[in-house]
Write a structure and sequence with these properties.
Strand 4 and strand 5 form a beta hairpin. About 25% of the residues lie in helices and about 40% in strands. The strands form two sheets. Strands 4-5-6-10-9-8-7 form a seven-stranded antiparallel β-sheet, with helices on both faces. Strands 1-2-3 form a three-stranded antiparallel β-sheet. The protein contains three helices and ten strands, in the order H-E-E-E-E-E-E-H-E-E-E-E-H.
Length: about 170
């Protein structure tokens, strides 16, 4: 019976495009667009949805929400995206994040014609507390995939170092 419920849940999740990809058969929450899993003991699906332009899922620590989090994992898929616009799109992201941020730092970790891994941090922006993010953008299947890990912090710690590896090695399904 549990297996039947899990299969129904997974099928509904795929059709709806906005539910978590957790399974009672293991201890992980599986992301929709990436071959990445999050341990259920620490993470849960917080929010997601899909419209004509994009699909998105956000994952938070147990007991947190997407409105009130300390760490956040976001996966996103923009359905139509021109690969030739990747560099321009990344420049826009950097410019918007830099605006109003104290001690803004931006680093491109890895880049090729169809993907980029970058990280940024700031010590506050007036709106947001000190924040760190590492993200990967991949142009594939006519669209743009994004996987990001964000943490409200000023310190580089073990979580961040682990997420740098996860993001850098992330592959789309």
């Amino acid at each position: 019976m549990k297996l039947k419920i899990s299969i129904i849940s997974i099928v509904f999740s795929v059709i709806a495009g906005c539910a978590s990809y957790s399974s009672s058969e293991n201890d992980f929450v599986h992301l929709k667009y990436f071959n990445t899993s999050l341990p259920k003991a620490k993470w849960e699906w917080g929010y997601g949805g899909e419209n004509k332009q994009q699909g998105m899922n956000e994952y938070v620590h147990l007991g947190e929400t997407v409105q009130n989090w300390k760490e956040l994992v976001t996966e996103q898929y923009v359905f139509m995206f021109d690969e030739n616009l990747l560099s321009k799109y990344v420049s826009i992201i950097e410019s918007q994040l830099r605006n109003g941020s104290k001690d803004f730092k931006w680093t491109v970790i890895e880049k090729n014609d169809s993907s980029i891994v970058y990280e940024w941090s700031h010590k506050g922006s007036g709106v947001y507390p000190p924040t760190y993010e590492v993200a990967k953008l991949i142009v594939a299947n006519g669209g743009l995939y994004r996987l990001a890990y964000d943490k409200y912090t000023e310190e580089i710690d073990g979580d961040i170092l682990e997420w740098e590896k996860i993001i850098k090695n992330a592959k789309i399904k």
